[in-house]
Design brief:
By secondary structure, the chain is an all-alpha fold. It contains 11 helices and no strands.
Length: about 260
């Protein structure tokens, strides 16, 4: 059985040798994973413009409709681009970020900032894209059904990115199965573990509203520790090591 204090203590020890690199990795990953959400305001503005000019001439109505359609078209294009980037870039960077923290903790030094792009190579790109896409799709469908089942499934699929970071060749159905097993009985505790970082992020926001970025490595490393604990409970104790042997030939093994 794991405790929050134990995971956090181990995370602090693990990230000491590469903390500032971890801040940089989280910052880069955040930029690459950020999506635009400003579409709603544009639609509302267009609607108001149409209403205000309704009492005018037919020419103004035509102009209003044209402007509205242009704005709507731009919004849809931007949303489509954001979705494509999320599926084919951001999801892979998210997996790569986890891999960075895993390898850095094992090696007790930074594994290299470029490690966040590891999923783009090695022949695993399409497998990671497919598995992460299915995870997001299933979560969305369950959320559309009802909010509570969506939240439940979110935590049931919680460990899929970690499994892919550890084993990018893992088939999607195996990743889903293992994540379900690992999170059985651990969903609420994981939720509470997330909540335990709220104070840190609120404190970080007091530092010019950007202090939260300095908490990110601590957060990421803590949940990597959680993954290792749950993985060993399901699959048995095993050494963790970077899989890219031509880059990390002298990698250290870490005993969990």
């Amino acid at each position: 059985m794991w405790t929050r204090a134990e995971l956090k203590d181990r995370a602090k020890q693990d990230m000491k040798p590469f903390y500032w690199y971890g801040v940089l990795v989280c910052f880069i990953a955040g930029i690459l994973g950020a999506g635009s959400s400003g579409g709603g305001g544009s639609i509302s503005a267009g609607s108001r413009s149409s209403q205000n000019s309704y009492s005018g001439s037919g020419v103004w109505d035509e102009h209003s409709m044209t402007i509205f359609l242009i704005i709507l078209g731009v919004i849809l294009v931007v949303m489509a681009i954001a979705i494509v980037i999320g599926i084919f870039v951001s999801n892979l960077v998210a997996v790569g970020k986890l891999r960075y923290f895993m390898d850095s903790a094992i090696m007790q030094q930074s594994a290299g900032v470029g490690r966040i792009f590891f999923a783009f190579g090695g022949g695993h790109y399409l497998n990671v894209v497919k598995t992460m896409f299915l995870r997001g799709l299933f979560e969305s469908l369950w959320t559309l059904l009802l909010v509570i089942p969506g939240i439940y499934k979110h935590y049931e699929y919680y460990m899929i990115p970690y499994l892919l970071a550890d084993n990018p060749e893992m088939e999607w159905h195996e990743a889903f199965r293992l994540s379900k097993e690992m999170m059985a009985g651990n969903k609420f505790d994981t939720f509470v573990l997330e909540l335990s970082f709220i104070g840190w992020y609120l404190l970080g926001m007091l530092v010019c509203c950007i202090g939260g970025i300095f908490v990110n490595p601590y957060y990421e490393m803590t949940f990597v520790e959680l993954y290792w604990v749950l993985r060993d409970q399901v699959m048995g104790p095993q050494p963790s090591e970077p899989t890219d042997q031509n880059v990390y030939a002298d990698a250290y093994y870490r005993e969990i």
